[in-house]
């Protein structure tokens, strides 16, 4: 479609500039013969110029503007539009006083005021878009029925989703609880990667991809969250992770992921990361040494005499003398708690009664 429009514009530009150049060439001739010759030569040169240069002043600048606007978030676009309107209104109010200035200032200053106030309004509102959206969100929330959240609350924050976090599936449960306020933005290239994984010939990868598609469909059905799939892209970047980092810097928004490598790369470039694995570790139950709990010891540990069990939140508990109690529910006493990069590890031991010690 774009090619056909560009071709039509080339033809129109060729005809229009060729006619204008031909008329100009006709006026350069001193006699009828020279006028016809100049008309033909300059008209052909004008037509060639129009054929070549028309896209560079029509479709290509429009395409560049569309790409630049596509990279902007909804908050930035709204703030810029609001700033433009207020800037133009201010310029309109000052146009009459400025027109009373002596010539030539009275003729020039109204136009200068329009340009200056429009630029100032856009710059100021885009720079303070976070405060403006927060204010509008607060005002809209007060006017709502029963304190219900308004649409401005959903626009107040954009979160980019990584492929890994969609495949993981836990994002659906987190969003359902309301701990992800804002708009979940899924770029088209992330969705394409998810579809590629779902169509993989490898059975395990195909199953993971389809699980991600199911999680995404469930996310879109949640009433308290806004999921938006966008064609926004990062030009000149091929890798999905690199594209996400570039977009996060452009949109000034965090990335929701559980990819360790993406986490580190993004942090080095100053991009905020919301890591689901870190969230899971943060909300695990806090236990202290000497605390007691009942645990199902269902497998042996790595060291001699150890047994292993898990708490309800999935935290692994190493029972130092639990080998003889495998398959049983026992009350254990916490002896040590270690926080590692992989999560929290708890060491405990079974308090054996003197009369019931196992040999």
Structure description:
The chain has 359 residues and is of the alpha/beta class. The protein folds into four domains: 2-65, no CATH class; 76-149, no CATH class; 157-281, 3-Layer(aba) Sandwich (Rossmann fold), CATH 3.40.50.1010; 292-356, Beta Barrel (OB fold (Dihydrolipoamide Acetyltransferase, E2P)), CATH 2.40.50. It is 57% helix and 16% strand. The protein contains 14 helices and eleven strands. The protein has helices at 2-28, 32-57, 59-70, 74-99, 105-127, 129-143, 151-155, 163-168, 170-177, 188-198, 203-221, 240-251, 260-268, 276-282; strands at 158-161, 183-187, 226-230, 255-257, 273-275, 292-297, 299-300, 307-310, 316-319, 328-340, 343-350. The strands form two sheets. The chain has a six-stranded mixed β-sheet, with no helix packed on it. Helix 2 (32-57) runs parallel beside helix 3 (59-70) and helix 4 (74-99) packs antiparallel against helix 5. The longest helix has 27 residues, at 2-28. The chain is elongated. It starts with a helix and ends in a 9-residue tail after the last strand. The model is unreliable at 142-155 and 354-359 (pLDDT under 50).
Number of alpha- plus pi-helical segments: 14
Query: What fold name goes in the CATH topology slot of the largest domain?
Result: Rossmann fold
Instruction: Give, in order, the helices and strands.
Output: HHHHHHHEHHEHHEHEHEHEEEEEE
Quote the distance from N terminus to C terminus: 82 Å
Number of strands: 11
- Sequence stretches where pLDDT stays below 50 over 5 or more residues: 142-155, 354-359
- In terms of DSSP E residues, the strand content is 15-25%
Structural class: alpha/beta
Helicity range:
55-70%
């Amino acid at each position: 479609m774009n090619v056909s429009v560009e071709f039509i514009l080339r033809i129109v530009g060729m005809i229009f500039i060729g006619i204008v150049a031909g008329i100009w060439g006709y006026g350069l001739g001193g006699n009828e013969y020279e006028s016809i010759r100049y008309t033909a030569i300059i008209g052909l040169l004008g037509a060639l110029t129009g054929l070549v240069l028309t896209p560079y002043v029509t479709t290509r600048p429009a395409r560049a503007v569309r790409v630049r606007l596509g990279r902007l978030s909804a908050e930035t676009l709204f703030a810029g539009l609001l700033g433009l309107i207020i800037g133009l209104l201010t310029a309109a109010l000052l146009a009459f006083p400025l027109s009373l200035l002596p010539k030539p200032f009275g003729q020039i200053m109204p136009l200068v005021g329009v340009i200056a106030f429009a630029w100032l309004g856009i710059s100021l509102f885009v720079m303070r878009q976070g405060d403006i959206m927060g204010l509008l969100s607060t005002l809209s929330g007060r006017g709502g029925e029963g304190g219900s959240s308004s649409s401005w609350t959903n626009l107040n924050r954009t979160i980019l989703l990584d492929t890994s976090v969609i495949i993981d599936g836990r994002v659906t449960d987190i969003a359902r609880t309301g701990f992800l306020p804002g708009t979940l933005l899924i770029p088209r290239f992330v969705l394409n990667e998810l579809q590629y994984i779902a169509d993989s010939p490898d059975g395990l990868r195909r199953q993971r991809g389809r699980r991600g598609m199911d999680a995404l469909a469930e996310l879109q059905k949640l009433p308290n969250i806004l999921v938006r799939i966008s064609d926004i892209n990062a030009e000149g970047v091929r890798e999905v992770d690199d594209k996400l980092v570039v977009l996060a810097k452009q949109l000034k928004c965090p990335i929701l992921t559980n990819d360790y490598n993406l986490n580190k790369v993004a942090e080095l470039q100053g991009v905020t990361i919301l890591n689901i694995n870190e969230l899971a570790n943060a909300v695990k139950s806090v236990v202290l040494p000497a605390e007691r709990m009942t645990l199902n010891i269902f497998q042996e540990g790595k060291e001699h005499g150890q047994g292993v069990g898990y708490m309800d939140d999935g935290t692994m508990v190493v029972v130092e003398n639990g080998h003889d109690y495998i398959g049983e529910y026992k009350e254990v006493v916490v002896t040590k708690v270690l926080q590692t990069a992989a999560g929290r590890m708890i060491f405990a031991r079974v308090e054996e009664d003197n009369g019931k010690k196992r040999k």
